[in-house]
Automatic annotation (TrEMBL), chains A, B:
It holds the Pfam family polyprenyl_synt. Its cofactor is Mg(2+). The keyword Metal-binding applies. Keywords: Isoprene biosynthesis, Magnesium, Metal-binding, Transferase. This is Polyprenyl synthetase family protein. Belongs to the FPP/GGPP synthase family. The keyword Magnesium applies. It comes from Rhodocyclus gracilis. InterPro entries: Isoprenoid_synthase_dom_sf (IPR008949), Polyprenyl_synt (IPR000092), Polyprenyl_synt_CS (IPR033749), Prenyl_diphosphate_synthase (IPR053378).
Amino acid sequence: MTSAVAPTAPLTHAVSESPSQIAAFADWMPAVQAHIEAALDRFLPSSDAIPGRLHDAMRYVSLGGGKRVRPLLAFAAGELTGAPLERLEAAACAVELIHVYSLVHDDLPCMDDDVLRRGRPTCHIEFDEPIALLVGDSLQTCAFELLTHDVFGDPARQIEMIRLLAHASGSLGMAGGQAIDLGSVGKTLDQPELELMHALKTGALIRAATLLGALCGEAMSADARNALDRYARRAGLLFQVVDDILDCTANTATLGKTAGKDAAADKPTYVSLLGLSGARHFAEELRAESLDALRVFGARAERLIALTDFITHRKF
Amino acid sequence: MTSAVAPTAPLTHAVSESPSQIAAFADWMPAVQAHIEAALDRFLPSSDAIPGRLHDAMRYVSLGGGKRVRPLLAFAAGELTGAPLERLEAAACAVELIHVYSLVHDDLPCMDDDVLRRGRPTCHIEFDEPIALLVGDSLQTCAFELLTHDVFGDPARQIEMIRLLAHASGSLGMAGGQAIDLGSVGKTLDQPELELMHALKTGALIRAATLLGALCGEAMSADARNALDRYARRAGLLFQVVDDILDCTANTATLGKTAGKDAAADKPTYVSLLGLSGARHFAEELRAESLDALRVFGARAERLIALTDFITHRKF
């Protein structure tokens, strides 16, 4: 028999505590981030596994940094449906690995040719270009392998989740958005064109993170799912508008990546289209629309509401 | 009522005829290849879909060429378990898209820097490097999305197939083999090291193609599955040994890709390790071991046997 031991110092939220049991958003966010860090560490192949250099590089780009916005969205959406932790971990890490792979390939010399990411040298700088290419390729594969893990319960639902993530990541989603972005340099896009590009490039994966999180729990009604989808689409755009604002207002040290590079590359952004105050106004509008979509969920959406406010007002 | 019409000329095998109904290997192979071509054309996003240039490039690299060895293996293995055509098409195309993505990334300047593939300019030559990067990324995603299609019947089996393909493609499979290959340039590998590299780089996907084809049909006994796995591992190695022989004996026009490039790049091959006649002898040994593994299947393995002979004696 074990006896209860009274703690002599205030407990910090350990990785083993379920984020869904934590009340305050300020405590919840680092707890989820710590969970994701630990889960990625567990899911990624060990550096001891052959080929060690590739696995080292996969771990270098995936661990030890990042806001983990997509995992946070998955966890927050999971609270709408009472999703169990082990499912949320696998689903959130799968989305994060897709995101990280896209960053590694985006930073390559033939794309953005960037040297700084999350405050550290980019993968092809720290390792080399061929390894960075294979790291991106392997992280994408790892994401889909993760979604085949034996924790999701219903295999039919699991297939739906894999389909959703694949569609959001591929040529009709994130990668397609990057291709439009490549073709847009030096061009003037109007607002609908810019929205399509971002809906694919950033929005599709943000939406997938949110829906996958909710799909980890109890089945939703069609109405609830539509409302969450409406939320996820607006939140995805909101995230991008705020990113554009930060790209021209924050400095490189705060962002942990090269600031001002969109303007330098003559890429169209919401700031170049609407001006800084116009972009800020648009962000507020999107925030209001996002929160409006969450009304049907009542108190269960508290975490998503707080996360939306965080996304709107973040400084990095 | 329709009356039977006697054909005035010998019928050629149309794309609509199921390959499993065709007796002769010489007829079966082009029929499967035509099926794969048509299925890929159907599965890949249309060039009309935004972004058109990315979809054009995905179609350019995937359609109109290739021996389709992996799809042929999937179809031949499918005959062991009576696999239906629509499942075989989806599974075989998924494996082929993984293969094509790996070729596109392998040909990039930071990897093999090759200009010729399947007798045509490589993707980054015909389009450009950023598009070639996104083409590879998107084809990988497309492969996994294909395996979520609603044709496979049992979702649990479908999850197993996705897991198998992911494991075969990622850092512990094909991409891992490429990383070992990168690290091996200018080194002398012994035979076990060379076998590990090829077991991952080429063998893993050949094995996956074979097992996925069989998984499209009736469930196999554990013994049958083990025998097929033994076949698939030996056949994967056989394919690579023959590739190494052709790389130093065939010319560029016949291969449709740059001949002699492994030797030029000082990469270890079976020919550099065993000499040309030693490599040929090893290929015959592997062929015998492969066929031995198929004995348990009796007459149902006829197609796999014929395909193994084709792989052994191919000239390109």
